[in-house]
TrEMBL record:
Signal peptide: none annotated. Residues 177-219 are annotated as: Disordered. It holds the Pfam family 2_5_RNA_ligase2. One of its GO terms (molecular function) is ligase activity. Residues 183-219 have a biased composition (Low complexity). InterPro entries: Cyclic_Pdiesterase. Keywords: Ligase. This is 2'-5' RNA ligase family protein. It comes from the Bacteria.
Amino acid sequence: MTGNADTDGGGWPDVDGDTALTVKVPEADPLVRAGAPAHITVLYPFLHVSRVDARVHGELGELFGAHDPFEVSLGEFGRYPGVLFLHPLPGDPVRALTREVTGRWPEAEPYRGVFGGGLEPHLTVAITELPDGGGPVPGGPEPLDVLAAELAPALPVTARITTVHLIVREGTGWRDHTAYSLGRPPSRTTSRTPSSRRGSPYGLSSASAAGSRSAGTDW
């Protein structure tokens, strides 16, 4: 995801009203230089926010509630062009969530098809180039090889994942909208005051309605 709005809804950058489903990994926040909370994307983009009604929230709550919480270990760096990321192991629990959501809403194509069938689960640490020929990130981080060497002593990072977040693109930033608990039936709606923060081109995080509980920090 990027900082500007797209008018036709195709490819990059982000579109106002986009939503995404992510899991936050606050234990990895000290390592991240990507301008967003540490997270692993379940699906970006999901449905336009205008389509995310009470029925959709209820279905998401039931879907995620049927999956148990899980633990991940982040101990190895990987690279996409212009991107440094961490591999979450095991990755199967995240893949399972993605498969279920895209199976229920097949029109929600991962990354709008820019990366074919999508990307493997990853936690973005830093970005020096925007995807799809978008050029360098203004004021981007130091060279990725140097950054990886600096951060390596802090690995591995382990985290327990208990929540999936729906987030919404508004203007030039993303905001938390709803949080869905893993391994629990839906609870009543909890709303929160929005705020925004610049997001990352390779992933996202959170939203508020039936099947949800109070969301975490905004982007």
